[in-house]
Each structure stands twice: as structure tokens, then as C-alpha cells.
């Protein structure tokens, strides 16, 4: 994870895909969480805070309001040129920081991130998106709050639950804060795909 995501108490501007209004996604996450219920060391992500981090912009107190507006306008313009994208959510990812659900096809959502990154590069002086690693789109099921073997988690999720479809029809700019082991945010704006 990018270090900025881990700063408690400070608001971070982030573009997210939010699966609100997609009950099959919530059911899939809940199924995974139910299977993990007896295991320690995990903080389940509540349904209202499910998200797919698409691009971190930077700390809100470092980006002037006019740059935030210019960025938002540029993202809206770019997303209007894309059609909504449907992917399969359900590929299990095990990481030292989280249990996650990835998407297939793996690169299907790249045009969304590319458009957001281009908009940021043109409008936000404080952020250099070119310096960031490749993106692996995912929705976290639970965050790790300790250390321990992965084997019990792998066993609990085997066989994996049936995947769900995820329709990405908009992206949201949020002001996010870390609270304990979870992330909470306020939605600032949205950019629909296809106008």
C-alpha cells in the first residue's frame, strides 16, 4: 500500500469505485466474511465501506480547491468517453495486509484508471502518478490486524465462493480517513461512465 493511505486523522483525496446498489457484490463479500468468522487477526470491512481504490490523489490539505475542481472536471470529461464496464469479482487474493477479491479480466478496468491518472497529471501539481506501482483492482473483504499463518484463511475460503458481476458505471472522488484498521470517507463528487 502507498504510505499516504496509512496516515490516521488526515484526509486523503482518492478516486474509488464504490459497489453501492450492487447487492450481489455485498453478498459475495459477506459470504467470504462468514467463512472467516472464526479466525482472529482480521477486521471485516462493513458493507457501507466496501470500495475499490482506483487512484490516490494526495492529502486534501496539500491540494488547492481550484486544482481539485479542475481535476474533477477533467475526470468527468474522460469518463464520459468510456462505456460502463462489467467485470467478474471473486478472484481471491491473500496479502499480508488484507484478504481481497480481484477482478477478471485483470486489465479490463485499466481505461478508467488511465483516464483518472491523466486528469490528475494535468491538473494537480502536488501529485506525481507516474511514480506509483501497477494497479491490481480489488475489493478488500477484511484487513489484517496482526501476524499469523495464511493457511487457516486459505482453508476457510476453499472452495472459493461463486464470483459475482461488478458493473462499473461511475467513479467517486472521496475524502478518506483511516480510523483504526478501517477506512471511512465522504463522497465529494462522482464521474459517470458514458456521460
UniProtKB/TrEMBL annotation:
Alphabetical UniProt keywords: Hydrolase
Entries under Pfam families matching the protein: 2_5_RNA_ligase2 (PF13563)
Protein name: RNA 2',3'-cyclic phosphodiesterase
GO MF, any single term: hydrolase activity
Enzyme Commission code: 3.1.4.-
Enzyme class: hydrolase
Cited InterPro entries: Cyclic_Pdiesterase
Amino acid at each position: 500500500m502507498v504510505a499516504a493511505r496509512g496516515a490516521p486523522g488526515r484526509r486523503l483525496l482518492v478516486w474509488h469505485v464504490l459497489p453501492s446498489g450492487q447487492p450481489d457484490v455485498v453478498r459475495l463479500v459477506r459470504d467470504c466474511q462468514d467463512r472467516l468468522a472464526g479466525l482472529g487477526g482480521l477486521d471485516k470491512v462493513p458493507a457501507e465501506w466496501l470500495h475499490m481504490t482506483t487512484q490516490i490523489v494526495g492529502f486534501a490539505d496539500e491540494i488547492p480547491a481550484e486544482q481539485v475542481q479542475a481535476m474533477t472536471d477533467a475526470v468527468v470529461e474522460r469518463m464520459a468517453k468510456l462505456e460502463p464496464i462489467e467485470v467478474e469479482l471473486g478472484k481471491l487474493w491473500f496479502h499480508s495486509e488484507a484478504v481481497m477479491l480481484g477482478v477478471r479480466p485483470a486489465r479490463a478496468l485499466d481505461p478508467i484508471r488511465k483516464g483518472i491518472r491523466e486528469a490528475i497529471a494535468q491538473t494537480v501539481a502536488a501529485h506525481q502518478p507516474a511514480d506509483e506501482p501497477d494497479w491490481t483492482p480489488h475489493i478488500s473483504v477484511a484487513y489484517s490486524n496482526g501476524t499469523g499463518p495464511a493457511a487457516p484463511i486459505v482453508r476457510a475460503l476453499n472452495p472459493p465462493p461463486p464470483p459475482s458481476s461488478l458493473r462499473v458505471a461511475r467513479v467517486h472522488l472521496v475524502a478518506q480517513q483511516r480510523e483504526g484498521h478501517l477506512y471511512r470517507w465522504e463522497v465529494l463528487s462522482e464521474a459517470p461512465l458514458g456521460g
